[in-house]
Design brief:
alpha+beta, 9-stranded mixed beta sheet, 13 strands, 25% helix, 21% strand, elongated
Amino acid sequence: MTAPLETTPETSTSSRSFWKRSALAIGGVILFHAFFDIPGFFYENRGWDIPGDPVEKAAYDYAHSLKLPDSVPQEAPYFPFWWARIVALIPGAPSVDEAYFRHLCEYEAGDYVFKRVEDVEGVFQLRPREAIYGMPIDYDRYRMEEPTGVGAGDTNTRGWKAAESLVQPPIGVYEFLEQPSYEHEGAVVRYVRGRNDHPPDRYRNGVDAYNKEYGLRDIPFVVVREEHRQRRARYGFTWRGIKRANDRRYSIGAGEQLIVDLDTNEVLAVKRAFKISGKVKDTKSGIWWGNALWCKGKEWEYRYLVREVLKPVPDLNQRFFREFVTTDKYKPVSKEPKK
């Protein structure tokens, strides 16, 4: 029979010393992971690009000068990053990025409507975007001011595309859309309903449209570009980026879309949105804002909020269809066959 091993004071002390050192090492790693978080040393802390063009800079400054009513949450409650980093060490637990994103979505994201306006003929698009989906800035963690408005379904860009969404029937519901002129300072470009014998290339074959009374029809593109000295619209919409603690570090972009009374600068409604990226394998940064995830059920689509707050003149498209069917007013002079 083998005699049991004896535990000497030396082995007992050695064992306790080993577990003590292990506990201190593990505790040190956790504390380091939780608290030692210096911007500029472990991660960059850069701001977004500010426009240099005078027209864009003026629109940027105006958007960031707008004041929201006190009823809008100014910022989500305190988020314990230190605790989220410790929890993230547990297998299967959400990462800090995901936990912080859910926190922002729960407490801040959504539509806040303060006032609706009836019988609006046209609207002013104060900050038309460049088409930046898939461009280098779309993959940059810091440079883009407002990532949530870039991506699938977004048509808040310069030129004809926004006019198609807001003026061209049957999707468009306004008589006109205005944008700042980038050629003549202080002037506006107005896209208004009217006969266009030389539409942009993509609209030469007209637009497929469905109307309950007249069925499926092929209607011409009926938006004309004009330039004027002064705006006609009283109401407009704009956007701006907003910052939250460590948001870009954790692959989160934040922004607001605002509906404004341009005569009084009163904010009639605001949509606050967040997006999360950071796991794209095909980009060096891991970022692709145009393909990032919105807060679930609170996606960004600017035109729906515009229509909800700035209610268009009733039956505008119904009247258009009646006039289109009974007259030749909107029919183009010549039309190429569909390819």
